[in-house]
């Protein structure tokens, strides 16, 4: 089994995805254990001091002015977790919760939070046992951490609340922990706060979105190239020297990919001669590298932010190397919230340009010889007419999802927390947007493949032919109208599973 080590080294985005989506286990390094023990010694020293320390011997938020006597501090931590596990709405996806737990564990293992070694070990054991706390959609404002989602995870560690076990059955947390041989935690000073005061949910969703978008932008280059080929477009606009005049790295990458994908196409070659009257293609064909490339560069910026966050230790108060325990504002989700919102814009735009290419293939006045709506018997058959409607509906929704969440802020905690990031909300809408983009590209894939089949006997490029052949393993070629919904789902599944190689 693959292991991801938790220690002083920052996690990579691939490691997060491997734990969240796969079967990779986590393992604490010796350095992590030493750092955790050293930080805990500082917390225990402060717990016995007369001077109050926030989160150790005081209440929380607007109640931080209240000093808590030693015999009530364990109850304080458990009460914090119970009261803050106040989420509502549908369950959050398993992969998101696993990413959230992993990233909180990473911060705990950094030695900057002051939890006990057994707390870190228990959290790692729960993750490795495949126990996934039930986290609800609503409850985080993206400041003071993802409080309600992280509290649900912390509550499960103490044997309370509900979880999904390794078989995905909904069971009480106490039963799942017992079945895995894990003793429930009894929280000590500072631990409840340390377990819930991070940006781990929104960061986990950012990492997973980046992972998906890197793949989907490769898919977009392929489906765009298929549409250019099917619409008798030119490949000359993808030449490297043209894109060197505007040296955005993403644009150059997409142009290179589209040129390579179209290499060897009989269809493109058939209208390349001096008799071709196609002076310029429509923007949705000619400008695909510019749009896809700008999206690539936006993802690259998001990767920079994600990588910095993966090297961060987010908690409040935080334990410093010299033993000081200081309050801070590093739990504010603004850096993550901004890029989550930013990514929703190119997602909507890449989907929008794909829908425009699809529409051209269906319009007899713009498709250069293809039948209306690619129908077998136009009039009797409607072809892909309504598939484009589905694209249009999704694109319209994606434009709404591109409205930023991070510009909103609702004060909370009696005005102590008077400016929040709404980063969790930005992450939730980005996940929906990524799913929508996948469906839009699946419909372009389905439509372009049908159009390329209708260009026979001219042969498409080897790369686009391979993409058509993969689709034809599960979706028949042109013919009378069929139930299209399963075909769209089949095309989506091919994209989701990462095949063919041309992606």
3D architecture notes:
One of its GO terms (cellular component) is cytoplasm. It is found in: Cytoplasm. Its EC number is 4.3.1.3. It holds the Pfam family Lyase_aromatic. By secondary structure, the protein is mostly helical. The protein folds into 2 domains: 2-197, Fumarase/aspartase (N-terminal domain) (Fumarase C, Chain B, domain 1, Orthogonal Bundle), CATH 1.10.275; 206-271 and 280-497, Up-down Bundle (Fumarase C, Chain A, domain 2). The protein has helices spanning 13-21, 30-47, 73-84, 94-108, 117-128, 147-157, 173-179, 191-196, 200-230, 240-244, 249-262, 266-269, 283-286, 288-310, 334-362, 385-401, 423-454, 462-472, 484-496, and strands spanning 3-6, 25-28, 88-91, 132-133, 136-138, 162-164, 170-172, 318-319, 325-326. The strands form 4 sheets. Strands 4-6-7 form a 3-stranded antiparallel β-sheet. A two-stranded parallel sheet has the order 1-2. Helix 1 (13-21) packs across helix 4, helix 3 packs across helix 6 (147-157) and helix 9 (200-230) packs across helix 11 (249-262). The mean pLDDT is 93.
Tags for this entry?
Fumarase C, Chain A, domain 2, about 500 residues, Fumarase C, Chain B, domain 1, about 5% strand, 9 strands
Radius of gyration in whole Å, from Cα? 27 Å
Can you summarize the main beta sheet? 3 strands, antiparallel
**Widest β-sheet, arrangement of strands:** 4-6-7
Shape: elongated
The CATH class of the largest domain is Mainly Alpha
CATH superfamily of the largest domain: Fumarase/aspartase (Central domain)
CATH architecture of the largest domain: Up-down Bundle
Q: Distance between termini?
A: 28 Å
Total domain modules: 2
Mean pLDDT, nearest integer?
93
Number of helical stretches of at least 4 residues: 19
Number of strands: 9
CATH topology of the largest domain: Fumarase C, Chain A, domain 2
Could you tell me the strand content as a percent range?
5-15%
Order of helices and strands: EHEHHEHHEEHEEHHHHHHHHEEHHHHH
| Helix residue percentage | 40-55%
């Amino acid at each position: 089994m693959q292991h991801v080590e938790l220690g002083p080294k920052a996690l990579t985005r691939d490691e997060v995805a491997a734990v969240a989506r796969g079967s990779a286990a986590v393992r604490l390094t010796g350095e992590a254990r030493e750092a955790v023990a050293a930080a805990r010694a500082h917390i225990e020293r402060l717990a016995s001091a007369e001077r109050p320390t926030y989160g150790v011997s005081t209440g929380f938020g607007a109640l931080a002015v209240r000093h808590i006597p030693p015999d009530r501090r364990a109850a304080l931590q458990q009460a914090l977790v119970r009261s803050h596990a106040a989420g509502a709405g549908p369950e959050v996806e398993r992969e998101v919760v696993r990413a959230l737990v992993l990233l909180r564990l990473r911060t705990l293992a950094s030695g900057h939070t002051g939890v006990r070694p057994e707390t870190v070990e228990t959290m790692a054991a729960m993750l490795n046992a495949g126990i996934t706390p039930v986290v609800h959609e609503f409850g985080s404002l993206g400041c003071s951490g993802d409080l309600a989602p992280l509290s649900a995870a912390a509550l499960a560690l103490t044997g309370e609340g509900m979880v999904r076990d390794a078989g995905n059955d909904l069971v009480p947390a106490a039963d799942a922990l017992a079945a895995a041989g894990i003793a429930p935690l009894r929280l000590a000073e500072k631990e409840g706060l340390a377990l819930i005061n991070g940006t781990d949910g929104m960061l986990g969703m950012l990492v997973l979105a980046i992972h998906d978008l890197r793949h989907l932008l490769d898919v977009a280059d392929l489906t765009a190239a298929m549409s250019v080929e099917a619409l008798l477009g030119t490949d000359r606009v993808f030449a490297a020297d043209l894109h060197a005049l505007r040296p955005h790295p993403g644009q150059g990458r997409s142009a290179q990919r589209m040129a390579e994908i179209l290499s060897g196409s009989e269809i493109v070659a058939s209208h390349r001669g001096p008799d071709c009257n196609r002076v310029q293609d429509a923007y949705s064909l000619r400008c695909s590298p510019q749009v896809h490339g700008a999206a690539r560069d936006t993802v690259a910026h998001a990767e920079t932010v994600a990588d910095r966050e993966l090297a961060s230790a987010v908690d409040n108060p935080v334990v410093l190397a010299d033993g000081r325990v200081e309050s801070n504002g590093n739990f504010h989700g603004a850096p993550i919230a901004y890029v989550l919102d930013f990514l929703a814009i190119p997602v909507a735009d890449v989907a929008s340009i794909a829908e425009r290419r699809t529409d051209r293939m269906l319009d007899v006045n713009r498709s250069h010889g293809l039948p209306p709506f690619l129908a077998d018997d136009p009039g009797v058959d409607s072809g892909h007419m309504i598939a484009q409607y589905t694209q249009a509906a999704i694109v319209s929704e994606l434009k709404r999802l591109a409205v930023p969440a991070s510009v909103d802020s609702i004060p909370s905690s009696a005005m102590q927390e008077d400016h929040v990031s709404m980063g969790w909300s930005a992450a939730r809408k980005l996940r929906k947007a990524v799913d929508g983009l996948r469906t839009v590209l699946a419909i372009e894939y389905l439509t372009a493949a049908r159009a390329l089949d209708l260009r026979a006997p001219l042969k498409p490029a080897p790369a686009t032919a391979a993409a058509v052949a993969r689709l034809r393993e599960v979706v028949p070629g042109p013919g009378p109208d069929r139930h299209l919904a399963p075909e769209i789902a089949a095309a989506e599944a091919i994209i989701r599973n990462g095949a063919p190689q041309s992606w």
